[in-house]
Amino acid sequence: MRFVIVTGLSGAGKTEATRNLEDLGYFCVDNLPPKLIPKFAEACVQSEGKIDKVALVIDIRGGVFFDDIFESLNYLKRQEFKYEILFLDASDDVLVKRFKEARRSHPLAQNGRVITGINLERNKLIEVKHRADLIIDTSKYAIKDLREKMNEYYGTGKEVERQLSTTVLSFGFKYGIPVDADLVFDVRFLPNPFYIPELKPYSGIDKPVRDYVIKHEETKGFLERLEDMIKFLIPNYIKEGKRQLIIAIGCTGGRHRSVAIANEIYERLNKLNYKASIEHRDIHEDVNKGAKKL
């Protein structure tokens, strides 16, 4: 089990770090009273592997309970329970700026100056910082930079790849372009099964239509180029922190060509081990107009 205790200064990025750990598959608990850490750790062990990655956020929001953290950590050490401490830090001027931009008061400042609360908190966290396994100073980090750092220390390549949820969506231009599409590809240049009487009643899901669409050289060339583009784009989208990608494939009615191409792209994405789903928005629009399923 990987057991991470996330702590540090208010405003230093604990919330964003925790969100990233959740994306990496960690079971996260925010603001758990430190006195309960040993019992929680024991419960995780008793889960028999069902919980193998845990992150606990512990900070001065716990008030008087925060002082119990050292007793709990010492207990874990005596029980030879392995844990890591991640400490988020930032410079005073950056923290003051963040609090002012968010129009929030510091938890220890009450009605006083933000810098007073920061100094009190920094002194209170000195010993915890000394015990930390990893200290990240977020003073010059944008959100995406912190995400990359978290991925580096707490994720694996496979987990990071699968953070991006990709949907391949077929549609018909005559019903409108999907408003949430990130990438839109027009496949109306491909030979159209609609004009072949024996194929017209079926959809791109059915083998005869799919085989007809895929067999043409222009289709094969398009698929190879599109796959290369997607393979290039996805790692860069992940790097920039994108969490969802909608790839929209459109033909005239959204029943034949776009469906066949979308299915092919969906299968190729899964072979590349990307988390992909498939949706055919307009495939049933003409069902009541004589279309049928094979």
Automatic annotation (TrEMBL):
Keyword set, alphabetical order: ATP-binding, GTP-binding, Nucleotide-binding
Keyword field contains Cell inner membrane: no
Pfam families, sorted: PapZ_C, RapZ-like_N
Positions with a binding annotation for GTP: D59, I60, R61, G62
Residues given in the record as ATP binding sites: G8, L9, S10, G11, A12, G13, K14, T15
Cited PANTHER family: RNASE ADAPTER PROTEIN RAPZ (PTHR30448:SF0)
Occurrences of domain RapZ-like N-terminal (ranges): 1-156
Listed InterPro entries: P-loop_NTPase, RapZ-like, RapZ-like_N, RapZ_C
Residues covered by the RapZ C-terminal domain: 166-284
Listed GO MF terms: ATP binding; GTP binding
NCBIfam families from the UniProt entry: PRK05416.1 (NF003828)
Name of the protein: RNase adapter RapZ
